[in-house]
Hints:
The protein is of the alpha/beta class. It contains 17 helices and 29 strands. The strands form 8 sheets. It has a 7-stranded mixed sheet, sandwiched between helices. The model is unreliable at about 325-335 (pLDDT under 50).
Amino acid sequence: MIFGEVPVSGALGARLAHGVRVAGLSLHKGHVLTQADCDGLLAAGIATVIAVRLEAGDLDEDAAAALIAGAIPPDHLTFTPPATGRINLHAAANGLFVADRAAIDRFNRVDPAITIATLPDHASVTAGDMVATIKIIPLAVAGDLARKAAAVLASSRALEVKPFAPRRVGLVATELPTLKPSVMDKTRRLLEQRLHPSGSRLTGEVRVPHQAAGVAEAIRMAAADNDLVLVFGASAVTDGNDVIPAAIRAAGGVVEHVGMPVDPGNLLVLGRVGAVPVIGAPGCARSPKENGFDWILARILAGETPGPTEITGMGVGGLLAEIPSRPQPRDTRAAERPLSVAALVLAAGRASRMHGRHKLLAAFDGKALVRRSTEAALAARPARVLVVTGHRAQEVKAELSGLKVDLVRNPDHAQGMSTSLRAGVAALGPGCDGVVVMLADMPHVTGEDVRRLLDAFAAAGGHAIVRAVSGGKRGNPVVLPRTTFAAILQLEGDVGARHIVESAGLDIVDVEIGAAAHIDVDTPEAVLAAGGVLKG
Length: 536
């Protein structure tokens, strides 16, 4: 492939390396120039373009991607048509995505122009999930390189989706006076949800006292009628001879491993009675959050037989998200200091429905709305208050004169709320544990309301999302923990953080603050109805 600047007069058949837009012409990257294109470019005064010409044996980007994708066995995978040198691979079934890292590394080292990126090895997937993407970087590559890369994938099972198979599952739960029956009921419901993607079902539950003899008999009976036995102990396993491992041996089984380098999930027990796997679940498996139990369960449901070698190899990547309700957080340093939570007041919007007036300059009880909202933030006593400005920024700044706040100018405010969120979060700094996001056009949110949200966030250890509600219906403000910041910095368009709240997988704590959670002022009528006086 020859890359470089090409005279338009001799560019017929060349492929544009960069798009060109001139009057009457819009030619995208990769476009093969026709004579009409060349004539149009010359007429517009364009003398040269950056383009590529294919040499003998070269494949264009889509052909190369298709050749490589054709080397991957299609079992339980679907492939998108090639476009701009990319083909995406999706799971065709619920199952376990398995990748051979050594083979993927060999593939990616054939040539920098040829790449494949995948999900982590042994990730659980749902039908339709993207599991990998093939991307040819330039507009064309040498055919022999594409064939060499394809040969790597053809010579090994570099990636695949192992579909889950339905299993009959027996549940044994042990009882102690300290364990409420309601907790055991919830555990069963969560377990049924975990089994649902594989089509597996609980055939029954046996509850027995937390003693080895009774647990052993329950395991023996469950193993006789099921493909898998799960044991939830009322007390955590602390030794290889504790109740659950001792019961597996007493049932005629073998204990293969006690413990795992995954947190949460350290206290898992894996054994077998005959050919039937037995998992002694760690206490964290009573939570819906991902933990080491999920990893072992998924492998078994996908037909694998994990043992000590597999379990002891799970340490890298085994540090999973903290569970907010854990009484002893792993990071004791964080527990020794108060949380640092900032307030972020969004005051950059264009107020497009205000017919030229600025809603944030409207007076409420003699104060501009933006000052009223910012003073509410300050009254809640966060670690600091940042105000994001944009539209009519100087007037907003003037209204905030004398307040101890940091102003963050958003030059891209016209592109939507996401830009203000990004600008504000980017200015928070490394020591911030969370941020309460406030909309400056909500006149009835008080400092006391915001303080209640911050207190709820602290009570959750700084790991939950806290949102204001009115009558149980979600509203604003909302407190977001630091773990959501990376997702916020990826937002685009006129959107807020709602999708992040709903998809983060974190606990959500709702705090009732009444009608204030829903009252914002986007029109002149709304300003007046809320008790404001319109100004400029």
